[in-house]
Amino acid sequence: MLEIDDLRKRYGDTVALDGVGFTVRPGELFGFVGANGAGKTTTMRIIMGVLRADSGEVRLSGRPVTYEDRRAFGYMPEERGLYQKMRAAEQVEYFGRLHGLTPAAARTAASGLLERLGLADRRDEAVQALSLGNQQRVQLAVALVHDPAVLVLDEPFSGLDPLAVDALAEALKDRAAAGVPVIFSSHQLDLVERLCDSVGIISAGRVVASGPVEELREREGRRLLKVVVRGAPPGWADGLPGRVTQDGERQVLLSEGGDDQEILHAAVRAGRVEHFGWQRPTLTEIFREAVA
Ligand SMILES: Nc1ncnc2c1ncn2[C@@H]1O[C@H](COP(=O)(O)OP(=O)(O)OP(=O)(O)O)[C@@H](O)[C@H]1O
């Protein structure tokens, strides 16, 4: 289990992190989301030990993370970091060796990953000759080559085409299924919602909401009631809390904070009730509200 506990970090007068804390369990795919400048990169750099927190702690399996632990982590930094003149496969192998793999194991792992990420036919090209998206795939292979014990990826999906997004999503799910805590940041909330077990929403250096996506949607979702009534006369919802819109023959009432039984009775009296239920917000809606 990876525990991030009360991280604080200032850059001069700028408070980048103001007590960031969350937990990523083994096998959990954790999406880290927040507006530009909210503190995601700073948090991930501290997890990886490339930046020191002013205070707070990162723990793995209950004890502070050490240099040795971090050698087994996989990291995709925001600033990226490939040797431009090195060939793709050679590069991935090289990083595998740095993480302690034997030459043969590094070669096998590099070939397998490049194949999986759709780069097998580019394996002997210099990184600088690859498109940005393909360079990103190489960067991902570098993060994954040693079967990392913890995976930390800073915006790994940005700039990838849909096929590469799918390939990466599968690779991350596989690592998580092997019991690894996986954390990645992204601005693609629909992707995070689809892929992640849990999310953390960070705003101005604080985690303002975190937990399993379904729990967050459930928790936030009880506030908005959606009622669809066919054939209701105009004004049937006068006096009820909420907003009514017309959708063909149907009237749709979205109500916040009303008495659901009172609304149900009014709807039944007014016409044929086709839908009556709590509306679960999307992650994007939760995000907008949390960072507002
Ligand atoms: N080296 C630095 N010197 C000064 N301020 C910094 C430095 N690095 C980050 N900051 C500030 O710290 C805050 C958090 O930045 P950070 O890069 O962690 O945000 P982020 O959530 O990753 O943003 P983005 O989504 O834009 O990548 C911002 O206000 C940023 O301007």
From TrEMBL:
Domain ABC transporter, chain residue ranges per copy: 2-229
PROSITE patterns referenced in this protein's UniProt entry, alphabetically: ABC_TRANSPORTER_1 (PS00211), ABC_TRANSPORTER_2 (PS50893)
One Pfam family linked to the record: ABC_tran
Gene Ontology MF, one: ATP hydrolysis activity
The keyword Transferase appears for this protein: no
Domain of life: Bacteria
Transport recorded as keyword: yes
Keyword line: ATP-binding, Nucleotide-binding, Transport
Family, as annotated: Belongs to the ABC transporter superfamily.
Protein name (record): ATP-binding cassette domain-containing protein
Organism: Microbispora oryzae
